[in-house]
Amino acid sequence: QVAQQPIPASLVADLRAFLARKRAGRSVWPIRRKDTAHMVRMDLKEAGVVAEQNGEVVDMHALRTTFGTLLA
Predict the structure, then answer these.
(1) For residues 19 and 62, what is the distance between their CA atoms, to the nearest angstrom?
(2) Separation between Cα atoms, residue 56 and residue 50, nearest integer Å
């Protein structure tokens, strides 16, 4: 069974134009592994989400687990 992540139709044209400018074989978003945790913390802050509360933590691992669960 193939898992799919739907992309909103309103985003498809923008992504096609963006990807057309990328060289084949290159990362779509060249983010270094160590930058992802910082990126998530900044996004959570901007969204007004508390990253840690009552011993519960929102981080890359929690997001990855939730994403996988939702795909299943």
Answers:
(1) 29
(2) 10
